[in-house]
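Is adenosine-5'-diphosphate placement plausible here? Inputs below.
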Amino acid sequence: MQAGLQTKETGPVGSLEDAAEPLLELRAVTKTFGEVTALARLDATIARGEFVTVVGPSGCGKSTLFNIVAGLEEPDTGGVLRFEGRSCHAADLLGQVSFMPQRDLLLPWRNVVDNAILALEVEGVPRQQARAQALRMLPEFGLAGFENQYPHQLSGGMRQRVALMRTFLFERGLMLLDEPFGALDALTRAMMQRWLLDVWQKYRRTILFITHDVDEAIFLGDRVLVMTARPGSVKLEQVVDLPRPRRPEIVTAPEFIRLKRILLEAIEEESIKSFQSATVREQTS
Amino acid sequence: MSAAVMASPSLAAQRGILGAVLLVAAWEGLARGLDLPSYVLPAVSDILASIWSNRMLLTQAAGYTLFEALAGYGVGCLIGIALAVVITMLPPVRSVMLPIATAINSVPVVGYSPLILLWFGIGVASKVVMVAMAVSFTVFLSTLAGFDRVDRRAVDLLRSFGAGRFKILFRLRLPTALPLMLTAMRVSTVRSVIVAIVTEMLGAYGGLGWIIYQAVLQIDFVQVWSAIFVASAISLTFFGLIGAIERRILFWT
Ligand SMILES: Nc1ncnc2c1ncn2[C@@H]1O[C@H](COP(=O)(O)OP(=O)(O)O)[C@@H](O)[C@H]1O
Ligand SMILES: [Mg+2]
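Reply from A.M.:
I modeled the complex. Tokens:
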């Protein structure tokens, strides 16, 4: 399985096609929940190896987008979903994408290692082998020595790293991270961002990353997608042309500031819209 | 924190022992002081003496009742858990099964005893069936509630890893349901002994309930109390044992 993925990414056969062909493509994807339209004709393309960040006002459908790409929700008919060059249903993506939901969702009866290997276990990897694999990864995730601790014994940052490790161990071409650092304090968050970039550069995964923090979106991403207020679609696609590896000081670079201004303006517009529609709804109800 | 956890059960145990000692002392004082007749309240010391002199008979009866209670308990737990699993795995079955189960359960189990005695005879089988019924309903309803308590987002996480129903059952639903399931199993220990004894009183070839029934006919109230004491001891031991197992298994709660 793993070997199969690797040949797809780096093997000489068909690599020219692969380079040209996007990993994930969404065309006119719409999702309604009863009365509520969460996503409306959303278009997006993710290339292999790319780190794409997604920002947008809360409630604009970011998590819904992830649920679709993870295979958990089926979009309305009419849209097109293509993964690895093939048109597919959302359900076909179950087990194909490594998904980290907004909450860490660690299982309280499993220790750090056993939480980390949950996806491997589901895949059918023998427990001992999966544990050995996880133990080798622990230091890199700043969890060395904590393998036998239980979730309630860990800090928020550590729990988040366990959840990230669980996601990384489920080796798939595409990783979906839904506000992974949203609940962390500023200092821990900055550390985690740098750490994530290191790990990403080492493992070369394709990452789709939701955040509500514009600095984070620019600092991490090759590209930032700004979503419109609900019903969500992509309002702006901003390429981030900052050199890598990125140092923390980069946030003061003129190019960073310029990008931030563009993005903030776009987000501001959408936030006002979603705020207004919320107040209008309140007044009418 | 661990110190508090360690200290609190022992404190509770101390209080429990103190309470029991006070109760026995008051009982003994009342029965002796007022010279109550044994059909009102025999003295504790008389009951204990009677237990000792009838130890062969009582041990045999206790073994008989304990076997019925344990067999019924084991079968009942298995049936209760199995039913909850089936209903959870096959949602359409739920809407058919749940009303039936609730209807059967709405009558106290003892209400079915004449039928059960008629169908299974007055031997051990009818007691095992009665206990199994009582236990299985309690365990079934709690396990089902436990399965329903599972976090939808956690189910989705496992689905995203490609997990099917069975993997979700074993890795998520069963551990989530375990606290409620084990609480029901602990409460059911006492119920299983009670139901076994009550059913024995309605017709049996042996057991503590049968002894109580015979003793009442012979107006031997010290013997009645002796059997009750032995039954309480069995219930409490059973309860404590399952409670200890529960605490060991549920280390994370
Ligand atoms: N399963 C669901 N059922 C009904 N409405 C939903 C469901 N999931 C999301 N929604 C609605 O869709 C909208 C977008 O939600 P979400 O994708 O969670 O937003 P975001 O992650 O951007 O904050 C919200 O209005 C939310 O109430
Ligand atoms: Mg969200």
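Short version: Chain B has ten helices and no strands.
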